Amino acid sequence: MASIVKKGNDRYMVRVSWYDDFGKRKYSNKTFKTSAEAKHYALTAELNKNTTNLELSKMSFSDYFKDWFELYKQSKITSVTARKYHLIEKELSNAFGNKKISDITRREYQKFLNDYGKNHVTDSVREFNGKIRHCVKNAMYEGIIDKDFTFDVQITGNDDRKYSVEYLSLEEMSALTNEVISLLDYRYSTNYIILTGIMTGMRVDEIVALTWKDINFNFKTININKSWSFKMNEFKPTKNESSNRIIKVNDALLDVLKDLKNARCGKDNDLIFTTNNVIPSTVAINKALRRRLTSLGIIKRGFHFHSLRHSHVAFLIAQGIDLFAISKRLGHKKLSTTTDTYAYLVDEYQAKNDITMATKLDSLVNKNSAPIVHHSI
């Protein structure tokens, strides 16, 4: 809104207000000699603002979401996260068609969210709504809508759709580890990648992005500071800030990597896991993994490279490793991400702990001691 204030020196000051990208109100002032000049400037400023808002308010909900994403989000996020926004745009288009964002009601949006929740787990619906809500708040800041129709909506989901992650038993994990080690050949990288996945729980795009300078043989650590875009065939940032981490690794893996480095005369900036100077595709890596499992007679429907990450977690939980330490090792932003993803494994571990706790408490009692007798007075 533009306002005009008469100053003491027969001047007229026009103050124009607007909201920035973060919803914070901003002001600009300009002084004129005459009232007519000030009124003309104020009217022009408001017309310019209203023209922009009018054009935006005519956009369909999905088109506005797309425009907002491209303007404010696209340049800051990874291609994986960008795909989530594209899927939301498609959902909005399917549900609301050409309906303008300024015509969407809270009841309509709640129904849309309920329908989406029928085929998605609650956590996914919450994330889905969060991204849309951010966009809707932006529309309020721009003056396109008067009310936040996402306010206080109820999040519901179909948690029956939650899946149990596939993982290897201790015996299967040991068999796969030894099978892979027996087939190591410095000319081919897939078995080295599989072994690293077993021993570290790293994501495949983090593993193949490793260079020799990321391995500290003295401190026995791996520095995870980037990942690999299989689509663009180049480095990219890790999934998020918490994915940047330094993890401890075991001697067996370090010995294997040291031998590989010596065999290839590896230099600091050289990628570790290449075959003929090319990083193998995820298809090739998964095919190699399935061949190893088949040769061992291990049948796991839907098992793929990321399942090694789940197997790594299952192994650590079974060994009684603290969940907070596991979460940090995986690069999860929140402990709840770990506990939610591996809830059933945590439940199994908790059940074993309950038995152990009961046994330990029983050990406090001397079996040979006389029973405690309470005498009434």
TrEMBL record:
Name this protein carries in UniProt: Site-specific integrase
Gene Ontology terms, MF aspect: DNA binding
Gene source species: Pediococcus pentosaceus
Gene3D superfamilies, per database record: 1.10.150.130, Intergrase catalytic core
Record's keyword terms, sorted: DNA integration, DNA recombination, DNA-binding
Keyword DNA-binding set for record: yes
Tyr recombinase domain boundaries: 163-355
GO annotation (BP), single: DNA recombination
Family: Belongs to the 'phage' integrase family.
The keyword DNA-binding is annotated on this UniProt entry: yes
InterPro entries found in the cross-reference section: AP2-like_int_N, DNA_brk_join_enz, Integrase-like_cat_sf, Integrase_catalytic, Integrase_recombinase_N, Integrase_SAM-like_N, Phage_Integrase
